[in-house]
């Protein structure tokens, strides 16, 4: 058993292939130990890969408006005055907690996205 750090996609593929071969190894055996170590190395490598960040809150609102065929007037019915909607969409006004709740409830935009800085 030759175990080494996973540094490249090629190393990662090799580790996955080896893991597949020894997947049913008995715990405590040499192959069982190799399986356990490979699992940790693979998990560590996968956690270092680039993750996809949440979209900008305003871009998420605009995208959802497009999906729902909403215009600013429709959004004003959700969060308030049309002028306020314009300020928010142009990033001149921040979303309030109340607005975030309403956007989440009515447009089904996750609150994790809406609470981000922008």
Q: Would you mind describing this structure in some detail?
A:
- The mean pLDDT is 92.
- Helix 1 (9-21) packs antiparallel against helix 2.
- The protein has helices at 9-21, 30-48, 57-68, 72-79, 82-89, 97-107, 111-114.
- It folds into 2 domains: 9-48, no CATH class; 57-114, lambda repressor-like DNA-binding domains (434 Repressor (Amino-terminal Domain)), CATH 1.10.260.
- The termini are far apart.
- The protein is 64% helix and 0% strand.
- The longest helix has 19 residues, at 30-48.
- The protein is rod-shaped and about 70 Å long.
- It has 118 residues and is mainly α.
Keywords:
434 Repressor (Amino-terminal Domain); 0% strand
Write the layout of secondary structure elements.
Blueprint: H1 9-21, H2 30-48, H3 57-68, H4 72-79, H5 82-89, H6 97-107, H7 111-114
Helix pairs in contact: 1-2, 4-5
Count of the separate structural domains: 2
Rounded to an integer in angstroms, the radius of gyration calculated over CA atoms is 24 Å
Q: Number of DSSP helices?
A: 7
> What structural class should be given to the helix and strand makeup?
mainly alpha
CATH topology of the largest domain: 434 Repressor (Amino-terminal Domain)
The H-level CATH homologous superfamily of the largest domain, spelled out, is lambda repressor-like DNA-binding domains
Largest beta-sheet characterization: none
Q: What is the arithmetic mean of pLDDT?
A: 92
What is the terminal-to-terminal distance?
Answer: 50 Å
């Amino acid at each position: 058993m030759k175990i080494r750090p996973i540094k490249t996609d090629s190393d990662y593929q090799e580790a996955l292939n080896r893991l597949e071969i020894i997947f049913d190894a008995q715990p405590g055996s040499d192959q069982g130990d190799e399986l356990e170590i490979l699992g940790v190395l693979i998990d560590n490598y996968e956690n270092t890969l680039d993750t996809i960040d949440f979209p900008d809150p305003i871009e998420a609102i605009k995208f959802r408006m497009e999906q729902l065929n909403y215009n600013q007037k429709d959004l004003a019915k959700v969060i308030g005055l049309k002028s306020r909607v314009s300020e928010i969409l142009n990033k001149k006004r921040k979303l309030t907690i109340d607005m975030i709740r309403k956007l989440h409830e009515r447009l089904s935009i996750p609150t994790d996205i809406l609470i981000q800085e922008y």
